[in-house]
């Protein structure tokens, strides 16, 4: 798996470093996590990697298009490594859990704007809000 991460970094003209590999591995195993969780995951495997290094790596990987930063309204920023498609997200209003939702209809962008105002649209961002199964079950049992 590390060779896959190394290839991604090289294809983006980025140096292969231990912190970059660790962040990519953490996001592949734990999608939709915030910065603090990424730091904890990376430092569990590599205790000498600094907080600042993780922040810098997240910024570089996001700028290079290898990581996607998502921030639903009212929520903290989260990161994911799934960037090759135009998928969407569903967010629990109660616990904040986030899950991927495949494109609703058609090819990217999934949605055609009723008026694009002359823009060349290349992505549509949709966030579905609701209650996850765990929170729904907890509220009905109370």
Question: Which helices and strands, and how do they pair?
Answer:
Layout: H1 2-11, H2 18-29, H3 35-45, H4 51-63, E1 68-70, E2 78-80, E3 88-92, E4 98-101, E5 127-130, H5 133-141
Parallel strand pairs: 3-5
Antiparallel strand pairs: 1-2, 3-4
Helix pairs in contact: 1-2, 2-3, 3-4
Overall mean pLDDT: 89
| Helix proportion | 25-40%
Give me the Rg, rounded: 17 Å
The helix/strand class is alpha+beta
Task: Provide the succession of SSEs.
Answer: HHHHEEEEEH
Low-confidence stretches: none
Distance between the termini: 44 Å
Trace the largest sheet across and list its strands. 4-3-5
Specify the biggest β-sheet: 3 strands, mixed
| Rough outline | flat
Q: Tell me the β content.
A: 5-15%
Number of strands: 5
What's the number of helices? 5
Brief characterization of the structure:
Helix content is 39%, strand content 13%. The chain has 142 residues and is α+β, with helices and mostly antiparallel strands. Strands 4-3-5 form a 3-stranded mixed beta sheet, with no helix packed on it. A two-stranded antiparallel sheet has the order 1-2.
Model description:
- By secondary structure, the chain is α+β, with helices and mostly antiparallel strands.
- It contains five helices and five strands.
- The protein has helices at 2-11, 18-29, 35-45, 51-63, 133-141, and strands at 68-70, 78-80, 88-92, 98-101, 127-130.
- The chain has a three-stranded mixed beta sheet with strand order 4-3-5, with no helix packed on it.
- A hairpin with a 7-residue loop joins strand 1 and strand 2 (78-80).
- Helix 2 crosses helix 3 (35-45) and helix 3 packs across helix 4.
- It is flat and about 45 Å long.
- The protein starts with a helix and ends with a helix.
- The mean pLDDT is 89.
């Amino acid at each position: 798996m590390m060779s896959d991460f190394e290839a991604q970094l090289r294809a983006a003209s980025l140096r292969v470093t231990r912190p970059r590999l660790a962040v990519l591995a953490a996001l592949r195993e734990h999608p939709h996590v915030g910065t603090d969780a990424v730091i904890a995951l990376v430092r569990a495997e590599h205790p000498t990697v600094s907080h600042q290094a993780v922040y810098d790596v997240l910024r570089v990987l996001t700028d290079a298009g290898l990581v996607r930063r998502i921030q639903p309204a009212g929520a903290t920023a989260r990161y994911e490594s799934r960037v090759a498609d135009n998928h969407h997200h569903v967010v629990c209003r109660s616990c904040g859990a986030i899950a991927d939702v495949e494109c609703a209809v058609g090819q990217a962008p999934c949605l055609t704007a009723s008026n694009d105002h002359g823009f060349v649209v290349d992505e549509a961002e949709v966030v579905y809000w609701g209650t996850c199964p765990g929170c729904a079950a907890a509220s009905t049992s109370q």
